[in-house]
Amino acid sequence: MPAKPPLLSITGLTVQRGDVTLLQGVDWRIEVGQHWVVLGTNGCGKTSLLKTLLGYLSPSAGDLSLLGRRYGNSDWRELRPLIGIVTSALQSSIPAAEPAIETVISGRYAQLDLWAQTTRADASAARRLLELLGVAVLEDRPWLYLSQGERQRVLIARALMARPRMLILDEPCAGLDPVARAEFLAFVDLLARQRRGPALVLVTHHVEEITPAFTHALGLKRGRVHAVGDVTAVVTSRTMSSLFDASIRIRRNRGRFQAAVDV
């Protein structure tokens, strides 16, 4: 049986803007069945990497193939609906009065401030996702009156509306209280274990947010790949200390990582 093609293949990816090099010689490959964590400090290139994957930043050099399509030979606008993203950057673009169910439905049409003519099937699918995420009661609640944890769940439901093959979670726990964070990560772990679920890419600063379902990790430093491979080989005291330029002790307990910083 022939091997399945990778979901993502990046070779020698370099992104420059003027005299600034945002990414330099990045190699990264995501295979079917893998779930990845992307780690690094602020300014290490994580956001630039995501923008390049989504076609908002053009590579200066290197090759990029996503879901079997090569950058430069395909219309990335057609590809974006297959890549779900949950990021706080979306929140300011959602109308304060928009009900949660409309926010979810907007994901099917890749719109913010939904204006498309929707169907009963859209509403039914959105309700199922809200129920899956445990927030069915929020269906008619305006965006303005959702808590941060509720907003993150609604945004995941929105991303899942288009049945993406890859789901990017860009620092999804920012602003969550400890209970909301634990509940959110439990759902992420459940989603990662679904047989036909999307490949997950979690972008974070915190190793404590890496659930046991994540298989691989990519560490970026100053726009370059600093470490890449199995999550247990990358998330170590030695590698994390080097990645963050600090003395960090990593422990693993019941499949979860804990970090202590020596100051």
Task: Walk me through the topology.
Layout: E1 8-17, E2 20-30, E3 36-39, H1 46-53, E4 61-66, E5 69-70, H2 76-79, E6 83-87, H3 100-106, H4 120-132, H5 148-160, E7 166-170, H6 178-192, E8 199-204, E9 216-221, E10 224-230, H7 231-234, H8 237-244, E11 247-253, E12 256-262
Parallel strand pairs: 3-8, 3-9, 6-7, 7-8
Antiparallel strand pairs: 1-2, 1-4, 4-5, 9-10, 11-12
Helix pairs in contact: 3-4, 3-5, 4-5
Please give a structural write-up.
This protein is of the alpha/beta class and 263 residues long. It has helices at 46-53, 76-79, 100-106, 120-132, 148-160, 178-192, 231-234, 237-244; strands at 8-17, 20-30, 36-39, 61-66, 69-70, 83-87, 166-170, 199-204, 216-221, 224-230, 247-253, 256-262. The strands form three sheets. A six-stranded mixed β-sheet has the order 6-7-8-3-9-10. It has a four-stranded antiparallel β-sheet with strand order 2-1-4-5, covered by helices on one side. Strands 11-12 form a two-stranded antiparallel ribbon. A hairpin with a 2-residue loop joins strand 1 and strand 2. Helix 3 crosses helix 4, helix 3 (100-106) runs parallel beside helix 5 and helix 4 (120-132) crosses helix 5. The longest helix has 15 residues, at 178-192. The mean pLDDT is 90.
Overall pLDDT confidence:
90
Low-confidence stretches: none
What general outline do the C-alpha atoms trace? globular
Provide the gyration radius in Å. 19 Å
Structural class by secondary-structure content: alpha/beta
Give the total of beta strands: 12
